[in-house]
UniProtKB/TrEMBL annotation:
GO CC field: bacterial nucleoid; cytoplasm; replisome
UniProt name for this protein: DNA helicase RecQ
Catalytic activity reported: Couples ATP hydrolysis with the unwinding of duplex DNA by translocating in the 3'-5' direction
Entry similarity comment: Belongs to the helicase family. RecQ subfamily.
Organism whose genome encodes this protein: Micromonospora globbae
Length: 618
């Protein structure tokens, strides 16, 4: 057991090594830690998986007093405390889930100086008794986690966060550190103002997540495409599948389960206890797939989520990046996969049109959607486009996204666009009628459908002039024109209408480059072999793979016995290194990254026994 009194005199690097078992700080962790240890305020922006927790956990251990962590994620506090306890750190939490006895115990420990970290829900700071409790103890620092919750424009807004500026007024000498993975500079400015952190030092990391492979594919039969992805590239892996509606969450979860993939639904329509139970199972069991609306995911710090799949178009690049960022926190290869089609554009545009709020609000939504569509339609490196969106200069093609791995062809779609827009123009004159994309394409392809003949559209001059493209290609044309705002949809039936800029194309004053629609679903082989985002045992030396499996089995049993998620015991990355290095003694084992003093004392002998057994039985 690490002795807490020793730690008090230790420096940050020693804490990193002894408690967490890591050799070196990542990125600017050390700068943040030094700054906060010295009593400074900090605003930290780092992508998910960047290592934000250490930025406040280590100062809390080094400075005298208790580090108070404000977090909106009540359902995850127990896991956070369990993970710290496993490291030998003394942690507790206060929130509405505790009964009176448990609350009293935590309060007593806090007052006796027997805690290193105390987690609080933001609403707790609105209660007088909690504030008085804090007044009676010694506080090392305040950490405000998920600080973007203070932003009224973001989708995670928590009114209680607005009151957090009181921390500074009430405890002016206690350093504050606010942390978020939300990247835009507008959000950053809002956090600084609302939390009264304008004088704080800002630490802004690169938002690149090189281990995540970004892929956006044309949507055909989305559930089947998803199943193929899971079977081919992620058998037995844990992952998250995002859907827009509760109904499609339910259907997709049923579909996966019926096809032998262990999947659970999660959406706001399920009662709280079912949601909590599903989240709990996702965190604790290996290899479960969570099918969810965006109600799921904030603060999920499961390190081995191997893929995040979107079956519907996200509303903004911010949301998309935050959701996909939940993959691969452990730094191992992971996949972010999105299936996207014409219907998504029509649906999202319609949602905006019918949304509540004034015109300015709707324009804001449309701007966000446009950026997302531009990402989907780009022929450039997806990562470069994402990073530029967040204000980071592009560093060239990444080599780990679909456009880098399998460059799409672009083609001059000006004439096709003119044909389509002319058709829309002709139909537009029959104002009382409602004609969507399907009907326009039927006309272009010269199909005498019932509707075409009923309205006499086979006598239009545009009838049958589009034979050079397949139906899927025409849908691509419609989608890309919608994405670029050269065409719009209106009303409940998705009627196509011209926009102010359509005339530029019709009048040949503007050309339109398009992304070519692939003939068949692109094979995923290229992505797979290059990124090997496969099962967790990929890439291990042949001799180490069976050892890794044994270690995982040992870990699963230990996690079950203690009632904690497997990753609280050791991360995959640590077990992989143990399997590869095959340490022969406790001293050698202690050098593996992720093996701190407490875990060495607790599990060291067991690990060596598993290794010895693996060596003798082969
Ligand atoms: P964030 O909160 O920014 O999403 P975490 O704090 O959960 O990220 O850290 C992500 C992962 O990286 C965790 O598994 C953590 O243990 C690991 N990690 C953080 N800092 C280091 C480091 N300096 N060396 C090795 N691993 C680290
Ligand atoms: Zn790329």
């Amino acid at each position: 057991m690490v002795s807490p009194t020793d730690l008090r005199t230790a420096d940050a690097r020693e804490v990193l090594r002894r408690v967490f078992g890591y050799d070196a700080f990542r990125g600017f962790q050390q700068d943040v830690i030094d700054h906060v240890v010295a009593g400074g305020d900090a605003l930290v922006l780092m992508p998910t998986g960047g290592g934000k927790s250490l930025c406040y956990q280590i100062p809390a251990l080094v400075r005298p007093g208790v580090g108070v962590v404000v977090s909106p994620l009540i359902a995850l506090m127990q896991d956070q405390v369990d993970a710290l306890t496993a490291l030998g750190v003394r942690a507790g939490f206060l929130n509405s889930t505790l009964d009176l006895d448990a609350r009293r115990r935590v309060e007593a420990a806090f007052l006796a100086g027997e805690l290193d970290l105390l987690y609080l829900a933001p609403e707790a700071l609105g209660s007088r008794s909690t504030v008085q409790l804090l007044d009676r103890g010694k506080i090392a620092l305040f950490a405000i986690d998920e600080a973007h919750c203070v932003s009224q424009w973001g989708h995670d807004f928590r009114p209680d966060y607005l009151a957090l500026s009181m921390l500074h007024e009430r405890w002016p000498d206690v350093p504050r550190i606010a942390l978020t993975a939300t990247a835009t500079s507008a959000t950053r400015a809002e956090i600084a103002t609302r939390l009264d952190l304008t004088g704080a030092r800002h630490f802004v990391a690169s938002f690149d997540r090189p281990n995540i492979q970004y892929r956006i594919v044309p949507k055909r039969e989305p559930r089947k495409q998803l199943l193929a992805l899971l079977r081919d590239e992620h058998p037995g892996d844990a992952g998250i599948v995002y859907c827009l509606s509760r109904a499609s969450v339910e259907k997709t979860a049923e579909f996966l389960t019926a096809n032998g993939v262990a999947a659970l639904p999660y959406h706001a329509g399920l009662d709280a206890s079912t949601r909590a139970a599903h989240q709990q199972r996702f965190l604790r069991e290996d290899g479960l797939v969570m099918v969810a609306t965006i109600a799921f995911g904030m603060g999920i710090d499961k390190p081995d989520v191997r893929f995040v799949a979107h079956l519907d178009l996200p509303k903004s690049v911010e949301g998309y990046y935050q959701e996909t960022g939940r993959a691969g926190r452990d730094g191992l290869p992971s996949t972010a996969w999105l299936a996207y089609g014409l219907q998504d554009v029509v649906q999202q545009r319609k949602l905006i049109e019918t949304s509540e709020g004034d015109a300015a609000h709707r324009r804001g939504l449309a701007r966000h959607l446009d950026a997302m569509l531009a990402l989907c339609e780009t022929v450039r490196c997806r990562r470069a486009q994402l990073l530029e969106y967040f204000g980071e200069p592009a560093t060239g093609a990444c080599g780990n996204c679909d456009t880098c791995l399998d460059p799409p062809e672009s083609w001059d779609g000006t004439i096709a666009a003119q044909k389509l827009l002319s058709t829309v123009f002709r139909l537009d004159r029959e104002r009382n009628q409602r004609f969507g994309a399907g009907h326009c394409i039927d006309i272009l392809l010269g199909r005498r459908t019932e509707k075409v003949t009923q309205f006499g559209h086979d006598s239009l001059t545009v009838f049958g002039i589009g034979g050079e493209l397949r139906e899927a290609e025409w849908r691509g044309v419609v989608r890309q024109l919608l994405a670029e705002g050269l065409l719009a949809v209106e009303g409940d039936y998705g009627t196509l209408v011209l926009t102010d800029t359509s005339a530029e194309v019709l009048g040949r004053r503007r050309s339109v480059m398009m992304r070519r629609e692939p003939e068949r679903p692109a094979s995923s082989r290229a992505g797979r072999s290059r990124a090997s985002a496969a099962a967790a045992s990929a890439e291990l030396p042949p001799a180490a793979a069976p050892v890794f499996e044994r270690l995982r089995a040992w870990r699963a049993a230990a996690a079950k016995e203690q009632g904690v998620p497997a990753y609280v015991i050791f991360h995959d990355a640590t077990l992989r290194q143990i399997a590869t290095d095959a340490p022969a003694s406790l001293a050698e084992l202690s050098r593996v990254s992720g093996v701190g003093e407490n875990k060495l004392a607790k599990y060291g002998e067991q690990i060596l026994a598993v290794l010895a057994e693996a060596a003798t039985t082969g």
